[in-house]
Amino acid sequence: MNAAAGTLILGWGNPGRLDDGLGPALAADFERATPPGVTVESDYQLQVECAADVAEHQRVVFVDADRRGAGPFWMRRLTPEKGRLTFSTHSISPETVLALARDLFAVEPEAWLLGIRGYDFDGFGEGLSMRAQDNLTAAVRFLRAACEGESFRPVEAAAEFTTEFSLESISFSAPVLATVPGDLPGSDADDCEGDPCKTAST
After folding, report:
1. Is 109 part of a structural domain of the chain?
2. Prior bond of 72 cis (ω within 30°)
3. Range(s) of the domain holding residue 79
4. Three-state secondary-structure class, residue 60
5. How would residue 120 be classed by pLDDT, with cut points 50, 70 and 90?
6. What is the count of structural domains for the chain?
7. Are the beta carbons of 199 and 192 closer than 8 angstroms?
8. Given pLDDT bands bounded at 50, 70 and 90, which one contains residue 166?
């Protein structure tokens, strides 16, 4: 199976648990105005079926809420899970999705994990906290510029970018905090073992 051209944005989380819905919220923004060459998917959790979608693209960006990062977001490269695959039929990690795409379809797309800092995960109800909404706005700007400029790179933590941020010929003004390589926070999934909303590994 040959990977098709284009980027898949795959956001996951539970919109009914407040900031846990950051992944689907970013996906919804891209669905309203999708850049050329981009496909958008979202769900409550990652499942084995996601491997087929991933295998059809040259690049995939997994998007999840983050509980512990400095904010507003961070992004890092992902590689397929090594060794024997172990996963639940209900929810799996991004690395396991990539390993399934490799083992079942002989495809290893370029892969990234974008974590958007959230703050309110304990309540029920739709809608994001004010700070999470601000972080979502910054993450959307960053990812749109990356998609349109075909320029993806890790975002480091605890370092504030200058107000003028550019990728290729695309630029926008946005104060952005990022994460430090080697000290990357986990996604929200790291703190919700047993939570049916999702699981992810860092």
Report:
1. yes
2. yes
3. 4-191
4. strand
5. confident
6. 1
7. yes
8. very low
